[in-house]
Amino acid sequence: MRIVIIGGGIMGCSTALALGQRGGEVRLLERSVPGAEASTAAAGILGAQIEGHEPGATFDRCLRARTGYAPWAAELREATGIDVGYRKCGVLKVGMSEAELVALREMVSWQAKAGLRAELLDGAGVRAVEAPLTDGICGGAYFPDDAQIDPPTLLRALVAALARMPNVHVESGQTVRGLRVEGERCVGVDLGGETVSADATVLAAGSWSSLVPGLPKDLPEVKPVRGQMVLLEERPPSVRTVVFGAGGYIVPRGDGRVICGSTMENVGYRREVTAEGLLGLLRTATTLVPRLGAAQVGPAWSNFRPFASSPMIGASIMPGLFLATGHHRNGILLAHDTGEEVARAILG
At residue 96, does pLDDT exceed 90? Predict the structure, then answer.
């Protein structure tokens, strides 16, 4: 079966891997290089519980995706020799006031009733988990099973794994000019000089998904939400747990690197890193962990989360077209699960 994938980010690569493992003939088309956009700019938080605001199908999907990451990381390491940085480091969300603790108390309550590991901590309990946190914290919610990976390394492992598959072809510098539609069925894509025929077409173009001509009019729009981030270097490292505050989060990689993120800005496709954005990120980081004020400032960057009303995964309303986009804040978390679901939808 011939399959063409539009987009070589985390969704496109994970879907190509799942399809290739099932014997599909896959052609992955990326306008730049694989992972050049949001995928490698992400923090890599596998925060199924910290992002779980209510029970339901979406929360269950995130839990399933988190559970599948450890074996997927091991599979990629076995296939490529690349360690993608998977660590079950836990996530701690802190409250600086009693009002902030109310929402955390509710989150912990319903997740604990569902049988998940979730703890409500007072200020002393928070600092028992992470001693360097500021004394101004009233308490927090601790989710020890949430985890992290390193997105740039994950993308390198995926591309390396795809390169070993003779039935998968990854092509950089390919801009899709539109879908090819015959009758009411998608039968491939137009590259503006070359027509690519396919039995199935996968839309995995992230924040650019809605810009592909020929999509069904009823398909929900995918919009870009800019996120700015900055890297701090702290040696020796003092924090091991991912820590969320009201204004952002810090993600310690364990080797002295600390990712500080992230803004949420509806500014279209403007990619600037702004003084105001960085000021807010650094203020949040140093408020949570005062000793980060002495850390060395590294690179800063930004990219776009693909926001939709809900993730679009699997078969679309147009025969022959399948979706792997619109994951917003949970793209890295849902990557493997999405690839598997799309592959099942196409090949069974």
Answer: yes
